[in-house]
Each structure stands twice: as structure tokens, then as C-alpha cells.
């Protein structure tokens, strides 16, 4: 009997949601055949079997979220690689494959040595905490003994700690002004609604995963925010001049994003501290620049990675970006496409935003949002007014790693590189 465990689907991914079972208890399974579908905030993936055998038990229900490494199923394996035949003979055709009966709770033992499977009732795991949970408790000075656990055997998970912190914040918040006078605001108003006044939408597994990831990021890292504006009139004129020739030559459209990615990658080489993360009271600087790029679909936001972005030309970045965006919208991204990002660039300007405050991607020290390019009057040298193409560059940062001085210099470097493009230039 072997355990099939929840995989770790990404560098900063600590848990996954079992969306649906593809194999039922008692069904034969071949090695590498998918038995379940897993969803995280970054990717949807299939969980493969590790050997030939029979699926004996589901330890996790559909829609349940568990930590990476948690057993999700039990399998009876075949030593010969094929199902054992029933009867006294061992030859093929002596009878149909014998399917062992599903093991009862007493047939499996938990990690604490007690009988039962993961998720069974009992307090054997109640006092055991993962390193991630202990780290979170230290950061927020929380006593774990007082937090109810929803994990296996009552174990406290990261999600339990974050939910407890969220609840403590809500309880300590002042009551909304006017509530005592019968004025309905916010959640108070929602509570007073009748069933005909509201529509409750069940969040999809991937939306729930994104929500957990965002809450965790905000709780784990002290966010700060800063912004500069850049005059990209020369860049706009350059792209307008070459975009049709680029499409004919390369077979893909030339957007503004590759130019921004190039400027960011070169600026990260100049200021490598932004290409880092915070871990266990240390700053981990990444020597290679892997840019995570936010790609929106109808119901989710994916953040695939362009590896070694600083080594690519504008044309190379355009092809890499087009490939990742196409596969994201077609649902064909692989797990490795989502791993290893060191800095995130978010194109909020694609839907007309001119100002935003992005939330950090887990395991990174900063994220840059490129806002919409808009024409507006600008005071030029000699106090002359001119209509210029302007863009806001918004940077959120982990204040444990970065401060305003170095972040401002980084943004000035990105701005300088973008403003250096000219209509008669090249790429």
C-alpha cells in the first residue's frame, strides 16, 4: 500500500485544492495515469499515479484544500506491473483481475503511529505544527494552542492561522459609524438583506486559491507603494512606425509590453536587490532574472514566467510573451511555466487603468504595474506646453527588503530606458 501525496506545484505554492477525482475507489490505475485534478492560484494540473495498481481510498474530498505533501489517496500496487489474476493459476486468461477490497480505517496508520487515515478524528496531530505554520506564528506573535485546526487530526494549517488573524482583525475593528442608529453600511447592510435582494455566487476552486494567496501575501509582507510617470512619446511613435513590418516578419503583433519587460530586466541588472526575496530574516538575492508576467483569462489570473529575460531582445521577449499568453488562455500552461519567477510585471494598462497598487507575488520583493499610455498636456523645457504620451509605473515592494530610496532609483532607471526610445530608432 502506498500513499499518493499532494504535490508542490510551484516554488511559493504551499497547498492545493483537489478539484475532482478522475479515478474512483476500486478502479485499476496505470503508472503516470492521472487520478485527480489539482488547482492552485497559479496553475491547474493533473495528479499522476506513481505505480500500477488499484485505487483503494480517497483521503481528500473534492473541493478540499490541503498542504503540499499531504496524503490524498491510498493505492495497492502490483509487484509485477500488471493486475494479479484470480484463481490458483498465474497465467493470463485465468480470470478477471482481482480488485482488493478498499482498506478500512484500521488498515492504514497515520504519521503519529495511530491507526486510521489522514483526516481521521483524533488529536494525534493537534500539537504538531509545520515549519510554515510556526514561522507565521512567530511573525504575528500568535499562540497556536488557541487556534482551531481543520487539517488532518485537527492539525493547525497556515490557512487556519490566516483565518484566525483575519477574524481577530475584524473583531478589533471599530463598529461602523451610524450602526447604533440603524444606518446600514457594508456587511451590516448585507446581513439585513432578504434572499430576493442578493445573489450568492459560489467561488470556483481557482478563485478560492487566488483569494487565499492574496490574503497570505498581504499578511506575510509589509507592502509599500511608489510611482513615477514616464514620457513614452518616442516609444509610441517607434512602435507605430515598425509594427506592421514586425507582424509580417515575425508573424505576431508587436505590443508595448516587450519594451517594458526589456527596460525592467536591464534595470534589475543595475539594481539586483529588487530581484530578491525575504526568508527567515535573510534577503535571498537571485542571480538570474526570471520575469513573471500577469496574464488574465475570463475567470482567473495566471502568472507564467519568462526565464532569463535580460538575455532576450525585444523580438525574443515578444515571442516569449505571445507564447505564454496564448497557452494561458487556452489552458495549456504547464507547471514549470509557473515556477521560478523573481520579479513580476503586471500590464494593468491593458484595460485602461491609470493607477493601481498591486499585491506582491509570493516569494518576490517587488511587482511593477504598467498603466495605460494616455495623451495629456505636459510642460516642456522653456515652459512650453505639448501633448505627450505618458505612462504611470506603479511599484509595490516588500518593505522588509526594500526602501523608498532604492525603489525610486530603480523606477528612475526604468523611466530613463523607456524615454530613450526615438521614432527613428530601432529594436
From TrEMBL:
This is Dihydrolipoamide acetyltransferase component of pyruvate dehydrogenase complex. The keyword Acyltransferase applies. Keywords: Acyltransferase, Lipoyl, Transferase. It comes from Kyrpidia spormannii. Signal peptide: none annotated. Its cofactor is (R)-lipoate. Residues 1-76 form the Lipoyl-binding domain. SUPFAM superfamilies: CoA-dependent acyltransferases (SSF52777), Peripheral subunit-binding domain of 2-oxo acid dehydrogenase complex (SSF47005), Single hybrid motif (SSF51230). Residues 128-165 form the Peripheral subunit-binding (PSBD) domain.
Amino acid at each position: 500500500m502506498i500513499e499518493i501525496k499532494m504535490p508542490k506545484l510551484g516554488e511559493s505554492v504551499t497547498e492545493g485544492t483537489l478539484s475532482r477525482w478522475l479515478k474512483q475507489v476500486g478502479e485499476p490505475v496505470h503508472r503516470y495515469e492521472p487520478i485527480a485534478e489539482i488547482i492552485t492560484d497559479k496553475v491547474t494540473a493533473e495528479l499522476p499515479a506513481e505505480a500500477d495498481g488499484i485505487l483503494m481510498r480517497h483521503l481528500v474530498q473534492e473541493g478540499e484544500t490541503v498542504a503540499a505533501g499531504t496524503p490524498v489517496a491510498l493505492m495497492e500496487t502490483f509487484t509485477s506491473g500488471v493486475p494479479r489474476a484470480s484463481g490458483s493459476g498465474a497465467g493470463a486468461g485465468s480470470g478477471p483481475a482481482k480488485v482488493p477490497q478498499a482498506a478500512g480505517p484500521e488498515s492504514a496508520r497515520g504519521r503519529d503511529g495511530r491507526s486510521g487515515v489522514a483526516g481521521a478524528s483524533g488529536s494525534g496531530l493537534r500539537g504538531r505544527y509545520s515549519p510554515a505554520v510556526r514561522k507565521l506564528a512567530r511573525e504575528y506573535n500568535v499562540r497556536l494552542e488557541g487556534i482551531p485546526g481543520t487539517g488532518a487530526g485537527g492539525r493547525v494549517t497556515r490557512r487556519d492561522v490566516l483565518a484566525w488573524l483575519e477574524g481577530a482583525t475584524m473583531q478589533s475593528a471599530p463598529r461602523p459609524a451610524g450602526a447604533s442608529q440603524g444606518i446600514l453600511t457594508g456587511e451590516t447592510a448585507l446581513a439585513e438583506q432578504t434572499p430576493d435582494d442578493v445573489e450568492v455566487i459560489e467561488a470556483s476552486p481557482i478563485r478560492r486559491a487566488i483569494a487565499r494567496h492574496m490574503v497570505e501575501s498581504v499578511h506575510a509582507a509589509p507592502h509599500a507603494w511608489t510611482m513615477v510617470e514616464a514620457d513614452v512619446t518616442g516609444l509610441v511613435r517607434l512602435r507605430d512606425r515598425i509594427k506592421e513590418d514586425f507582424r509580417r516578419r515575425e508573424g505576431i503583433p508587436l505590443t508595448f509590453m516587450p519594451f517594458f519587460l526589456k527596460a525592467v530586466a536591464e534595470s534589475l541588472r543595475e539594481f539586483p536587490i529588487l530581484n530578491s526575496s525575504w526568508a527567515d530574516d535573510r534577503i535571498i538575492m537571485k542571480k538570474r532574472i526570471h520575469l513573471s508576467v500577469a496574464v488574465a483569462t475570463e475567470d482567473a489570473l495566471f502568472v507564467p514566467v519568462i526565464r532569463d529575460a535580460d538575455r532576450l531582445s525585444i523580438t525574443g521577449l515578444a515571442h516569449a510573451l505571445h507564447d505564454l499568453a496564448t497557452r494561458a488562455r487556452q489552458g495549456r500552461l504547464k507547471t514549470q511555466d509557473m515556477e521560478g519567477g523573481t520579479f513580476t510585471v503586471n500590464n494593468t494598462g491593458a484595460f485602461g487603468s491609470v493607477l493601481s497598487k498591486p499585491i506582491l507575488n509570493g516569494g518576490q520583493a517587488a511587482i511593477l504595474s504598467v498603466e495605460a499610455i494616455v495623451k495629456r498636456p505636459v510642460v516642456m523645457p522653456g515652459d512650453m506646453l505639448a501633448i505627450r504620451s505618458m505612462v504611470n509605473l506603479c511599484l509595490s515592494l516588500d518593505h522588509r527588503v526594500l526602501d523608498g530610496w532604492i525603489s525610486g532609483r530603480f523606477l528612475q532607471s526604468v523611466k530613463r530606458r523607456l524615454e530613450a526610445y526615438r521614432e527613428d530608432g530601432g529594436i
